[in-house]
Amino acid sequence: MKFFHIADVHLGATPDKGFPWSYDRGREIWESFQNVIRQAGRENVGLFLIAGDLFHRQPLLKELKEVNALFASIPNTKIVLIAGNHDYIKENSFYKKISWAKNVFWLSKEELSHVDFADLGVRVYGFSYHSREILEARYNQMQISSSPMPVNILLAHGGDETHIPISGDTFLYTPFDYVALGHIHKPQVLQKNKVIYAGSLEPLDKNETGAHGYIKGEIRKKEIYTEFVSSSIREYRTVSIQVGKDTTQFSLENEIRKTIGEQGEEHLYTILLEGKKPVHTEFFTDAFYKLGNVREIEDKTTMAYSKEQLKENYKGSIMEAYLALFEKEERTEEMEKAFQYGVEALLESGEELL
């Protein structure tokens, strides 16, 4: 029996507000969710697990109806979901007013509950958030009574100090055959084929670099096998561009444009400039934002100079006195950086000539 495990879809989010692609990202989150639902239908998936934060905030009734219609489009797939800290169940939540399709099973209680699927041989446990924060480590040493099902799965959401803390040994001796985790947006495996964060379906922040998607699993004779499926429409990527003595504004723009073209124009980029640039060279970094979906420019370059040449060129100047201050000292990495900043500041200001 195949199953899909997704989490942190965050329908309704509009990442990167103020950037030209922000509106498209909000639409793409819905599109990505639709894609994984359709894929589940194509693969005849028996069980579809959603480990919290399907919505970025309290869902609107029309949004819930849209989601429910998507769920109903794969009637042979059992869908089990819980609410997370973003879409927690408030007193007046529209979650309480929706009549889910027959194949949808909503573990809405604050206490641990479960649903049995005798035809699949699976029992799924879970509970929903009814507040933004849960400080108690509720998953620690969690035990369950005897289950009639061969396979027992926990839907869980948390992992930081204000949202159900989870430590390295929380699920070390878990009675569950599989723990489908949500809340942490980067996919990660805590225990192979057993305790896994699916990560967010789409990246929502520049720090969420790398592949995003969902977990595809298969249950064979009580054994569980899983794999990560990369499916996001876009990724946040950080690319390093090397600068040298011959680098010009024109050549740098061409290199950035070429790199974006090779890695994918759809992705969202932080450009990291590294290396040594010639003295008195400055780059007009604002121009780089027009070369693609460039979110941020980080200029880590330093000026290329020879200490001996500086001493020769600027005898009797502030520069010579500054160089002498550092000449005999053993410098740590931090002191070396400070020294370089000082040299660059003098070169840029022209005061080294005084």
UniProtKB/TrEMBL annotation:
<dbReference type="InterPro" id="IPR050535">
    <property type="entry name" value="DNA_Repair-Maintenance_Comp"/>
</dbReference>
<dbReference type="InterPro" id="IPR004843">
    <property type="entry name" value="Calcineurin-like_PHP"/>
</dbReference>
<dbReference type="Pfam" id="PF00149">
    <property type="entry name" value="Metallophos"/>
</dbReference>
<dbReference type="InterPro" id="IPR029052">
    <property type="entry name" value="Metallo-depent_PP-like"/>
</dbReference>
<dbReference type="InterPro" id="IPR041796">
    <property type="entry name" value="Mre11_N"/>
</dbReference>
<dbReference type="GO" id="GO:0016787">
    <property type="term" value="F:hydrolase activity"/>
</dbReference>
<protein>
    <submittedName>
        <fullName>Ser/Thr phosphatase family protein</fullName>
    </submittedName>
</protein>
<keyword id="KW-0378">Hydrolase</keyword>
<feature type="domain" description="Calcineurin-like phosphoesterase">
    <location>
        <begin position="1"/>
        <end position="187"/>
    </location>
</feature>
